[in-house]
Amino acid sequence: MAAAQEWLGTPYRHRASTLGAGCDCLGLLRGVWRQLYGAEPVAVPAYRADWRGEADGALRAAAGRFLLPVEGPVGGRGKWCCSGSVA
Known about the structure:
Radius of gyration: 13 Å
Shape: globular
Strand content: 5-15%
Order of helices and strands: HEEHHEE
Strand order of the largest sheet: 1-2
């Protein structure tokens, strides 16, 4: 949580993942991952801000490898959460 909190105040920048300079939602996860674990486990394919055009499913497939689907009011169709426990 502390690593993620360091990103407070970082502006939104589509496809960016640089602390203080900019990030989007996925970029936040990527940046925190790098802070905690080093290199990212897979290359992130290009994606649009609205995710339309993600027809080949590359991002969804990657999410399926590293995240778990979430059901109920927090989740729903297409929602994911981390596969590890959060202390």
